Structure to design on (152 residues):
């Protein structure tokens, strides 16, 4: 059902720590054998403090949020617009994953933030009604905004 989201999430687990961008891009399509459940848990603060994210992650998240903001401002919310939005968001997430150099617990927390985004962007790409697409967009928007609550 969510094979594309699972594959992308699995590639995130592998790609974030790999330094070779060509391998990272290849991993997105070659990771179908991984399971989505590799990162378990729920996103929470780090003992009351925000997790540390590196500058490139901040830049990529800001770009992702900009796509959301621009879509909202445009006001065109038909199915083709939602399909284009899903494509733009997926490209942005791919860039975030490819550029990721984070490691350790902060990196694992980032995975927990990304998981629902990856799933909902994949679902948005398959939406067949504007109502479903709108609901998914609202979920994506809320999930994206959580970044500033959990990361610095």
């Amino acid at each position: 059902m969510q094979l594309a989201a699972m594959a992308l999430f699995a590639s995130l687990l592998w790609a974030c720590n790999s330094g070779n961008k060509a391998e990272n891009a290849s991993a997105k399509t070659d990771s179908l054998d991984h399971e989505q459940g590799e990162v378990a848990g729920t996103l929470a603060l780090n003992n009351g403090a925000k997790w540390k994210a590196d500058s490139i992650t901040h830049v990529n998240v800001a770009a992702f949020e900009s796509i959301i903001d621009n879509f909202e401002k445009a006001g065109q919310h038909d199915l083709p617009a939602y399909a284009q939005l899903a494509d733009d968001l997926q490209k942005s997430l791919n860039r975030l994953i490819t550029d990721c150099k984070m490691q350790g617990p902060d990196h694992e927390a980032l995975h927990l933030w990304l998981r629902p985004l990856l799933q909902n962007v994949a679902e948005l790409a398959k939406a067949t009604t504007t109502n479903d697409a709108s609901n998914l967009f609202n979920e994506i928007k809320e999930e994206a905004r959580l970044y500033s609550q959990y990361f610095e």
